[in-house]
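Predict both folds.
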Amino acid sequence: MSHEDAASTASVERTSEKDTRFFGQPWALTHIFGVELWERFSFYGMQGILLIYMYYTVADGGLGIDRAIATGIVGAYGGSVYLATVLGAWLADRLYGSERVLFSSAFVIMAGHIALALLPGYVGLGVGLVLVALGSGGLKATATSVVGTLYAADDVRRDSGFSLFYLGINLGGFAGPLLTGLLQTTLGFHWGFGLAAVGMAAGLVQYSIGRRHLPDSARRVPNPLPKNRMPLVWIIGGAGAALIAVLALTGVIRADNLAVLVIAATVVAAIAYFVVILRSSAITAEERSRVWGFVPLFLTSVAFWSLYQQQFTVVTIYSAERLNRNLFGWEMPVSWVQSINPVFIILLSGVFAAAWTRLGRRQPSTPVKFAIGAIVMGAAFLLFLPFAGTGANGTPLVAVIGILLVFTIAELFLSPVGLSAATKLAPARFTTQMVALFFLSVALGTAVAGQAATFYDPADEAPYFTVLGIIAIAVGVSLAFSAKPVLRLMRGVR
């Protein structure tokens, strides 16, 4: 970095608390807002057509995979995206810094979408999903961490800033499924995947222009790895890749058990992460207590995402088989249902951000917000019950719109708040990796969502929605009653 660039980024850091040019937030937020918008355009655009691409017949342009196996693959892939945040966070904290990992990850994502668009059949599916999972994992944890560098720890704008960041995510999430779904129904699946690649390319161009204006702390490596340990890293990485290849070739890793394997890997990774951070001699007693306070938030987050992420499995199947998608004689693409939730995020994220800012220190604490999110998410699943057994096209579109509105309200109580809490509770030496821990809860919930979806039966769906809804409500109520002791562990962080 040149002397001029260093002076520029230092100036950004000194004035960020007074910088209110982006809807009351630091102007540097626009650069991360933009790249995340385009990344979500490509991610959700692809994901909106992914499941139906796998289980639609070859005659309809799909791969003809068994539906239960396809839902498991979607869950495993979604879980792998968030599991890959562990690798991205480690690279950021030990080798390259968050901003550089974010930038390189965007290239990997674009390559994955190109593979889905251009490579045929199972080869394109496998290569594309692996690359998108790795790249998205690297970008997710680091983008959140970079947003965190724009605020002081006690800046009351922090939660509202993350809510605006979440708005960028959902602007992309809204447009992606609409446009890829339209191309899929008119030109074919691979045109939809190609548009996702174009969207990611647009994000790269935008971010390349603005990245030098980010604070220098976004490029800092908080816990540098000693150079003499690099050969060991390469050996471990190569051995891990070889082991996965051997397990796949010998049939241990199969399409029908991917979700279970990702669940197991995520549980092991989460436990290992908590142990490493809690036993580290580099953190203080206060930091250790805050990490313990994060544990019940982590578990509640798993329960929440286990239901929420079924938008891409059960809700997709429900939309294809149970939802009346007829609009004045024209059948709406299945993927367009995925754009309903982002519309409500766009409408409501500013409302939530303004509410948290207006309430200031009188707003509900983080554990209470998490509890409300889980309870509302469970209630959303129970709202499917009045339409159980109504048959094909038996659920009106307005009903699913209403249910997804409840999904959105639950999400805004938990997801942006969780990202913010991870940065506030993080020990100084484990900043990005604490964000990765939050994403591990999403990984575990997403993989569970894929595995749970294998039990969904459109012909007998009442037990499915009832059991999962009640479990989520019970988890939320438990956290609500435990809010005070959790806050004591959080040591002043609300």
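Second protein follows, with its predicted structure tokens after the sequence.
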Amino acid sequence: MSLDARTQGLLLQFLLSCFVFLSSIEEGSAGITSSFIRSEWPSVDIPLENEAFAVPKGYNAPQQVHITQGDYEGKAVLISWVTADEPGSNKVQYGKSENKYQYTAEGRMTNYTFYKYKSGYIHHCLIEGLEYSTKYYYRIGSGDSSREFWFETPPKVEPDASYKFGIIGDLGQTYNSLSTLEHYMQSEAQTVLFVGDLSYADRYQYNDVGLRWDTWGRFVERSAAYQPWIWCAGNHEIDYFPYMGEVVPFRSYLYRYPTPYLASKSSSPMWYAIRRASAHIIVLSSYSPFVKYTPQWVWLKEELERVDREKTPWLIVLMHAPIYSSNEAHYMEGESIRAAFESWFLHYKVDLVFAGHVHAYERSYRFSNVNYNITSGNRYPVADKSAPVYITVGDGGNQEGLAARFIDPQPEYSAFREASYGHSTLEIQNRTHAFYHWNRNDDGKKVPTDSFVLRNQYWGSNGRRRKLKKHYLRSVVDGTAK
């Protein structure tokens, strides 16, 4: 339907105002250290008998159900679950209507032993060839013990596909963890970007290490069975217990939480990439070699060259140890990975780098330290519009508690910081801008605390924005914009 001249003029004026407003948003010059003092709940794990860890009813009923993206483009899901009593069926029945399952996929089963703990039977099933923007229902298990869930596939990979991500890190299984998870589930986000340290089972001893992996799997099922969690491993995913006779580091995580690493031609499940809606997401391992010519370094170099910002404007990196953090906890542990990869982040115009590890929240301005040279005197980060925003979200709620000691004075690169529990959301609107929020969990209440409008590093540059603005405004006036 065509627009009359007055309506066209008003719409054009509105769009121009929006572009001017978004173009005028710049990084601030004075960082904020929040004065909020967390009235902390005890950082102890929820008791085993709590309903948060309830075992589903029925003999050998599937439990610890969770899904992740199963391919590079978002048209596949990888469904995982555990049967405790016997192997059970590897099949997943699925379809587009509730209680009507037209399709069946066959998975595989594995298990493992760690010390004297024997895991249940861990099932993984890949479902491929799904349609975009479609709700699917699926059933696992058999007979009276079968269970039913659902998930929604993302929109087709294209530059203006809107999408909402949640970001959670260092979750654990305390009452604070439960608060974070429940508040996240109210956010209407569609996929979790998880930045490492899942269960904290390694803080236990002997058989309780495996037991606390099981409780955590049942704990997060309320969300992870219905939407993909994109997994990033942390230091607590390395099980190392010489006193138990386990003298070689072991990763229970890899048995339970597979990743689609082969889809992005990765050499390890610890680092990989996916495309989802309008975002290209790269997952890195902070505890694998990343210096020159090591497998992760080689893979990342090739993957960054494959990124197509015309199709996926938003380039997001996940890792566990933060590159920029002004907290005394784990201070500068990310320095070696910064030295290896920061220049690439600038060159390829990475928009956001999310990390965890430090049990507090912090957001940076756009700063870089690529010109570091102690001989010439370039020893400090400087403002750099081509740099990504670095955000630490290690505040999920684990039993180690909060990291409440920030370095004083607050460094210039630090925009906002607070020692509190919470989660973040990133709501992508189109190729040019997104809305970011960090939500504090204040004594059981969801409190939005830090937020800003994020301009895309690729399409937000002046030349590309002018080209896009001219084309987009013409399409709106002609009545062809969607």
